[in-house]
Amino acid sequence: MRLTRRHFLKLTGAGAALGTLPLDVVPARAQAGPVKIGVLAAKAGVTAPVGESGLRGTQWAVDRLNAGGGIAGRKVELVVEEESNPKDTVERFRKLVLQQKVDVVTGVVSTGVGLAIGPAAEEEKKLLLMWDGTTQRGVEETIPKPRYAFRSVDNEAEAVMASIIAARLFKGKIKTVAGINNDYSYGRDNWAAFLAIMKKFGMDVTPVADLWPKLGETNFTSHVAALQQAKPDLIFCSFWSGDAPILLKQAHAAGLTQSTKLVMTTAGGVHEQLKKAFSPEGMVLGYNSFYFEDPKASALSKEFTRWHQEKFKEWPNYESDHGYFTVVAYKAAVEKAARAAGGKWPTVEQVAEALAGIEVESLSGRRGYRADHIMEATYFQGVSTHKNKHDFVTLESVESMSTKQIQKPSGMGLYDWINSWKV
Amino acid sequence: MLGGVFHAAALFLVAAGLQLVFGVQKILNLACGSFYALGAYAGVSAVKTALGLGMPPPLFVVVLVGAGVALAVLGPPIERLLRTIYDRDEAFQLLLTFALVLMLEDVIRFVWGAAPYQLGDVYLVYGQIRLGRVAVPVYNLVVIGAGLAIALAMGALLTRTRFGRIVRATAENRAMAEALAVNMSRIYTRVFTLGLVLGTVGGALVIPAGAAINEMGIELIVEAFAVVVIGGLGSMRGAFVGALIVGVLKAVTIAVYPEAEMLAIYVIVIGVLLLRPAGLFARAAA
C-alpha cells in the first residue's frame, strides 16, 4: 500500500494519542517484571570518582536486596545512565523514565544538574532521589514544593560543622582568614556560611583573601602565591574532588601548610589521595556522611568497608553511603506504602508520601528524609593525623554531628538560623 | 608572579606546537590540547612504572620528558589522517581536529579511566628555595627552565639548521619550496610530530604539580588560543610572549582581584584584536 499523506497523518495522530495515555493505565504488566532503578552517575571529569563511588554503594545495596527477596517480592534491576551537563542529563533522565520505564531515579552529583532535573521529575511525576547536587539558591524557585523530587543535605552543612569545630579549636589563635573555594554555588555557600559562623562565635577575624578557581582547575600555583602574600592565619577550603590533594601538594611545596591552619570541609571525599607527604597533621578535615574508620561503625558499615576494600583495593567514601541510602529508603517506602494499600503495589504518589519522614539503617547509621524531602544524615569530621597504618592522613579523633544540628531547619533562612543559635 | 611564569611555560609549549603546525601546514589543530592531556597521563604512568622498577626519585624529570617524546610515534599516523583535509575549507579542519579531541578523550578514558590520575609526592623531592620572602618549589623552576630551554632550542632549530630553513621556506611559500625539490610529505610529517611532542612534553612536565584529568586539554586549548591571538598566529616569538602575558596576567589578577581572572585575559585579547588584529608578532606576509 502506498502511504498517502492522509494515511500518514492518521498514523501519526494515533501514535500521538497513544503517547499521551497516562502510564498508570498499564500497571499490571509493569508490576510483573523487576523493579527498575534508574541511576544517573557521573563518569567523566572531576565528578567521576564521586559518581563511581555512589554507583558502588548502589550496586551493593541492590545485590543485598535481591539476595533477600527484592522489594516487596520483586527483583531489582539497575539501569545506569551517565550524568554530564544539565541539558544532556535531563534528556537521559527522560530516557530512563519514558523509554526504560524505570520506577525511580537516583544519582546526581552536580548542583547544576540537580537544579535542572528536579523540575523534570515533577513534570514527569517520577520519583527522584538525589545523592548530592543540592544548593540553596535556585532550588526555592525551580522546585518550590517538591512532590516527587527528594534532595540531598544542604550545601553548607559541612561548612557549618567544620566552622563550629574551627571556632572551638582556634578561638583567640587566629586573626586573619582566607578562603579558596570553587566558583559556583557550593563553594560560595560554604565560604559565606563560614564567615557568618566566625562572626556568630565572636572570632573577630578579618578575611584577607577569597579566591575562586573554577571547578576542574588543576593548577593552583598562582592561587598559592596569592595566599602566600595574604599570609592568613587560617585557610578555609571546600574542595571535594581531585583538586583538594593538588592544592595541598602545591601549598605544601610553597611552605604554606606548615605555618597556616587549614580547614578542609570535604576533602575526605578523596581521602586516599591526601598523602602524608604533603597533607599536614592538625587540619580540620571533613568526610561528609561516611568515615571508613569510624570506631563506632555498625556491623553493616564494616561489612561494606571490607567488601569495598577487597573488591576495589580502596577504602570507601561518603557517596557510597548516599547511593546505598537512596536504594534502601526507596525499598522501605514502597513496602510501607504497600502495607498501607492493603498489599497492592503502591502508586508513585503513595511511595512519595511514605518517603517523607522515613528513617532507615544506612552505612553511616540511621538516616532518613525530612517532611520537606531533604536528607538527614550524620556527618563525620575531625583533626587530621599521620599516626595510622596508611600512607594518607586520617582523623585523630572522630566527631559526628547529625544534620539536625548542622542543617538549617525547614523553612528557615541560613543566616536567620545561625543568628538564632545560643553560643 | 613565578606561579604565573610556571603556568606560562606549559602554555608556551602547547601554543608553540599549535603555531608550528599552523605556520607550516596551515591547519588550526584543536587537538593540541589533547596531546597535552595525553602527555600528562603517559608521564604519570611512566614515572609510576619507573619508580616501581627502583628508579631513584630525583630522576623522574628525565622519565617525564622521555614519555612525552615517546608519544612522537603518534605523530605520523595522525598527520596521515589530517592530510585528507589540507586543501579543504577551514571548517573541515576544525571539524576533523575537534573529532580528534573527542576520540583522544575517549582513548584516555579507556586506557586510564575517568578518575583524576596523579603522581604522589615526587613533586616535593627537589624541595624548595626562598626567593626574597616567599618559598618557591624548586620543581616549578625546573619546569620554567625547561620551557626556556625548549624555546631557545626551537629558535636555534628554526634559524640555524638546514631543517629549520626548509621549514621556514615551506611556511613562506609552499609551492616554491616544492618546486625546489623539498619533500613536502616528509616535512609535514616531521613538523606535525614536532608540534605534537611540544604538547606532550608540556603536559608531562606540569603533571607532578597537579593531576591528570580528562578535561585538562580542553581547558588549556582555550587559553592557548588566547595566547595565539595575542602573539599572532603562526609566530614562535608570539607564542612565547603571548604565553608570558597570559600566565603572568592570570597570576596577578588572582592576587589582586580574583574575580577578574578570565576577564583580564580576554580584555587583552579584545584589545589586540582591535588595535593589532594580526597579533603582536604577526609576520608581514601573514
Overall 3D form of chain A? globular
Number of strands of chain A: 15
Name the beta content range of chain A.
15-25%
Oligomer: heterodimer
Number of helices of chain A: 16
Question: Alpha-carbon distance between the termini of chain B?
Answer: 33 Å
Structural class of chain A: alpha/beta
Give the number of helices of chain B.
12
The outline of chain B comes out as globular
Sequence stretches where pLDDT stays below 50 over 5 or more residues of chain B: none
Category by helix and strand content of chain B? mainly alpha
Strand content of chain B: under 5%
- Termini separation of chain A: 82 Å
Q: Name the largest protein-protein interface in this structure.
A: A-B, 39 and 40 residues
Task: Calculate Rg of chain A over CA atoms.
Answer: 23 Å
Question: Strand sequence of the main sheet of chain B, in spatial order?
Answer: 1-2
Describe what this molecule looks like in 3D.
The complex is a heterodimer of chains A (423) and B (286). Chain A is of the alpha/beta class and 423 residues long. Chain A is 43% helix and 18% strand. In chain A, helix 3 (48-67) links the parallel strand 1 and strand 2 (76-83). The longest helix of chain A is centred in the C-terminal third of the chain and has 23 residues, at 318-340. With 286 residues, chain B is mainly α. Helices cover 71% and strands 3% of the residues of chain B. Chain B contains twelve helices and two strands; from the N terminus they run αααααββααααααα. Chain B has a two-stranded antiparallel ribbon with strand order 1-2. In chain B, a hairpin with a 2-residue loop joins strand 1 (128-131) and strand 2. In chain B, helix 3 (60-70) packs antiparallel against helix 9 (184-206). The longest helix of chain B is centred in the N-terminal third of the chain and has 24 residues, at 2-25. The radius of gyration of chain B is 19 Å and the shape is globular. Chain B starts with a helix and ends in an 11-residue tail after the last helix. The model of chain B has no long low-confidence stretch (mean pLDDT 87). The interface between A and B is large, with 39 and 40 residues.
